[in-house]
Request: fold
Amino acid sequence: MAKTADRKTIVVEQIGSPIRRPGIQRATLIGLGLNTMHKRRTLIDSPQVRGLVAKVHHLVRIVDDEAGK
Reply:
């Protein structure tokens, strides 16, 4: 099994509220580790994570942290 430090990662930030959204979208945000506004999570860049992000693309954004390095 590869170490997580060797894998490519993405930073996802929640920019929208799950209030008045379908329950599956709220569950998707929780699955991504997001539950409050402007919270950021660093996740392994995989097809599964990209699929979750695509399901709630209107509530999250992928942050470009390369500018800060």
